[in-house]
Design goal:
The structure holds 2 protein chains of 2 kinds. By secondary structure, chain A is mainly alpha-helical. Chain A is built from 22 helices and 3 strands. Helix content of chain B is about 70%, strand content about 0%. Classes of the chains: A mainly alpha, B mainly alpha. Chains A and B meet through helix 14, helix 15, helix 16, helix 19 and strand 1 of A and strand 1, helix 4, helix 5, helix 6 and helix 10 of B.
């Protein structure tokens, strides 16, 4: 393939994101997994490379069969990556969930690929949507994603979040571009995408574990990108903007979320504590990790001047422009409604990233492990610094030279202006304060001068106004105490309605029904021989 | 001429913005039967703060010190966008989204700084700010989208939005949209009935709680940024209502008068209402979103 046609191929952003995350992962892994035997590390890196080969195969596949084979290589190696720390029961459970989900997805994809000539188009689209939707974590098929991301080693989570999930988007890209797809389906995909984004943002706010919270934010971003894809097909007048939004956000999200996961892994490596309510103040002890996470959080909140700004900005802009081009129809109303939901998602994303940054890195440590934390070894820092460098290059090369008329250059300048002006005012502030009496003292607490770390707000309390407002992610509280309430225990948990209301009863029902077939397994060898003979007879009769 | 008018508007806004909170306070004092502080009190406060040293909390990191410059920078750029609506140099598809993005950027750093002090009052303030800001986004998207639909222009820019009201046959919808947008304006600026800027009880604060531990020039930066934000959103509100004019002097007068009259209206609202209980605020914001939806129905099927 000639270089120019390669650069114009739709797969380029996917491959760029994958390559950079794979490189960062290879630098990060030896430092992160320093305490496992070398042989196991080598095996782990082998699976990591195999997953990458499979993923690249998916993006470059020229026929459905090649796509399916690469898909399986990617999914199965992914299983061994998630189950790296398989001594822990939680990790084993997460790996099983991952395996079942990805194999169900693969089954749907086989039907999608094999049925191309046989099935009607709506059925095909549905199979494709489920198969690729599982990988992209579209609601209600997102259940595996937070489990796998929380259980996997952090460089694997980064790779999963930024790149493996985009294999689902790659498939969705082809589904929405299928000739003859009806607008009703595209509308359904658009609404599904925005609903996923909202669900992910709310889920992210209600989680206590840092990596789980980041994983829900991945679901949110996958939803936004799915919405961009559907919009690009629905309205030809904003097709270019929506596709730019998709491409830029794909790479920006991969780099930013990869960086956030690597920083979260660095925290886990230093403290062994995943619960945000028990961390805090780490920026004083881990300045590099803290700064890197702050950069990622600013980008993922979509602040102007960061690469993460463009995706949501262009998406919203495209929604408004599409609505204004057909002002006197219900469709305009629908589009503005979608825009309002995307606005809400952005507001929630800001809240969730402020929450992660503040309760892990700022304030006072809430536990002894957080107090004893230390900066991570150089491979971890190097991998994060590499991604920050990539982000800078991405910003300079891709966005500054006005690669396209779809990006308003005034917005670029104002974003840059925000960074420069902040720097200028920072300098001015320093000059003003130089030579004056500047003092240190305890934090103002209504005149109370013996504050303790336990009096601080926690991540859970920070999210309460929003999680309380949206009841579907409300926390469950369990009280347990003796007769005179001398000892009491309170446990809070974020719950996922789909897991509790759909998947648990669903699997239970399936188990129950399958148990009815148990009589077939009598334990007698003669019976099994009979089954074989009957099968052969059946096949013979069928072929006659 | 365009550039000159733009620059004049911008500089006037920079100079006169601290008057706005003065006007609001003066009106509240008069309605309450007091004389009130002089109109220029805010300038004196800012001047005093700029000449002071600072007291830093023991628990803060450089992020705390980064917040005031970042918030002020965001407000300055937001103002530069709004001043240009009637023919300045900056106008592009989706510029109102960038305006909201700039306010988000300021809020991001302010909330981080608040949480950096490890005070539970400031945590409470930041938590409320995050929740109400997310809900305000819905109102802003719907009301601005409705305004653009009413204006009948195909470019999604502030300039299209600010061609003046009322458009033919959309009076009812426009009134609803204006009410919804004004509710968002009050919420964004931390005004009654969402937040009370003059309260002395930390438990009931939102914005004031977040800046409890800032002092000296830092506090001056934040206060000034608040004045600029009030000016930017106030001027935007009036330029949405009033038609575009070409006369240089008239444009200046309209811009200054517009910001001042929004302050006047805010003062009247602040003296006639009490702050809502915190659980009621989402109802207010979702009610405003409902109003804008109603207006959208009217606009689409007119």
């Amino acid at each position: 393939m000639a270089l120019t046609s390669f650069c114009q191929s739709a797969a380029t952003p996917f491959l760029v994101a994958q390559g950079l995350l794979a490189l960062a992962g290879l630098v990060y892994a030896p430092g992160y997994l320093a305490n496992i035997p070398r042989k196991r590390l080598a095996l782990h890196l082998g699976w990591f490379l195999a997953a990458n080969v499979g993923l690249a195969g998916v993006f470059l596949a020229s026929s459905p069969l090649r796509l399916l084979v690469s898909w399986e290589i990617m999914s199965l190696s992914g299983f061994f990556l998630v189950s790296q720390a398989c001594e822990q029961p939680k990790v084993r459970e997460a790996s099983w969930i991952y395996l079942v989900a990805s194999q169900l997805g693969a089954l749907c994809l086989m039907l999608w690929a094999a049925g191309a000539a046989l099935l009607p188009l709506p059925a095909l689209i549905l199979f494709g949507l489920v198969g690729f939707g599982i990988k992209a974590g579209l609601v209600p098929l997102h259940g595996w994603l937070p489990e796998a991301h929380a259980a996997a080693p952090s460089h694997v989570s980064a790779f999963f979040s930024g790149s493996l999930t985009t294999a689902g988007l790659w498939g969705l890209l082809h589904i929405v571009e299928a000739p003859g797809i009806s607008p009703a389906f595209l509308w359904a995909i658009l609404i599904l995408g925005v609903a996923t984004a909202l669900w992910g943002a709310l889920g992210s706010l209600s989680q206590r574990e840092l990596k789980r919270s980041l994983a829900f934010s991945t679901i949110e971003n996958m939803g936004l990108m799915t919405g961009m894809l559907a919009l690009s097909q629905l309205f030809p007048q904003v097709r270019e903007i929506a596709l730019w939004a998709f491409q830029i956000h794909l790479v920006a999200h991969a780099l930013l979320k990869g960086l956030a996961f690597l920083a979260a892994g660095s925290v886990l490596h230093a403290t062994g504590e995943a619960d945000m309510d028990r961390l805090g103040g780490l920026i004083h002890r881990m300045p590099w990790t803290g700064t890197f996470f702050l950069i990622a959080a600013a980008g993922l909140s979509g602040l102007p001047g960061t690469p993460g700004f463009w995706g949501p900005f262009l998406f919203l802009s495209a929604l408004f422009q599409a609505a204004l081009s057909i002002p006197a129809s219900g469709i305009a109303l629908g589009l503005l409604g979608v825009a309002a939901l995307v606005g809400l998602v952005e507001g929630l994303a800001l809240a969730t990233f402020v929450r992660m940054t503040a309760f892990v890195f700022l304030g006072t440590p809430r536990s002894a492990v957080a107090e004893r934390a230390h900066e991570s070894p150089w491979p971890l820092k190097a991998a994060m610094a590499f991604l920050v460098g990539c982000l800078g290059i991405f910003l300079l090369v891709y966005l500054l030279p006005f690669a396209t008329s779809a990006l308003p250059r005034e917005a670029t300048f104002l974003g840059l202006g925000l960074c420069l002006l902040t720097g200028l005012l920072w300098f001015l502030r320093g000059r003003l304060l130089a030579g004056r009496t500047n003092a240190q003292g305890p934090t103002w607490d209504c005149g109370y001068h013996a504050p303790t770390a336990r009096m601080q707000y926690t991540a859970t309390s920070f999210a309460q106004p929003l999680t309380g407002l949206f009841h579907m992610v409300r926390r469950r509280q369990e009280h347990e105490g003796d007769l005179f309430l001398i000892r009491q225990k309170l446990e809070t948990q974020a719950r996922d309605a789909f897991r509790e209301k759909v998947f648990h009863p669903g699997w239970a029902l399936l188990r129950e029904r399958l148990a009815m077939l148990r009589f077939l397994q009598s334990g007698q060898a003669q019976a099994y021989v009979l089954y074989i003979a009957l099968t052969l007879l059946g096949l013979l009769l069928w072929k006659l | 001429m365009e550039t000159l008018s733009y620059l004049t508007e911008f500089v006037l806004a920079l100079v006169l913005a601290p008057l706005l909170p003065g006007i609001v306070r003066r009106i509240k004092a008069r309605v309450g039967g007091r004389t009130g502080a002089p109109l220029l009190q805010v300038y004196r406060d800012l001047w005093k703060l700029l000449h002071k040293g600072q007291v830093l909390s023991d628990s803060v990191s450089p992020v705390f010190r980064l917040a005031p410059p970042a918030v002020l920078a965001a407000s300055l750029l937001a103002l530069s966008l709004v001043c240009g609506v009637d023919g300045g140099p900056i106008s592009f598809a989706g510029d109102f989204l960038l305006l909201l993005g700039l306010f988000s950027a300021g809020r991001f750093f302010l909330m981080l700084a608040a949480l950096d002090t490890s005070s539970s009052f400031e945590g409470m303030g930041a938590s409320r700010e995050a929740a109400f800001a997310a809900l305000t986004e819905i109102v802003l998207m719907l009301s601005l989208g409705g305004g653009l639909l009413a204006a009948g222009d195909h470019t999604a820019t502030l300039r299209a939005l600010c061609q003046g009201l009322p458009h033919h046959g959309t009076q009812a919808a426009t009134a609803l949209l204006a009410a919804a947008f004004f509710a968002a304006f009050l919420a964004e600026n931390g005004r009654i009935p969402v937040d009370d800027p003059t309260t002395h009880l930390e438990l009931t604060m939102i914005h004031e709680a977040m800046i409890l531990d800032h002092s000296g020039p830092d506090l001056a930066f934040l206060e000034y940024a608040g004045c600029l934000k009030l000016w930017a959103l106030g001027a935007l509100t009036t330029s949405i209502i009033l038609p575009t004019v070409d006369n240089f002097w008239l444009r200046i007068v309209l811009s200054v008068g517009g910001a001042a009259s929004t302050a006047l209206l805010t003062g009247i609202i602040e003296s006639s209402l009490a702050r809502l209980r915190m659980p009621r605020v989402p109802q207010l914001l979702l009610g405003a979103a409902g109003l804008s939806l109603l207006a959208l129905f009217l606009l689409v099927w007119r």
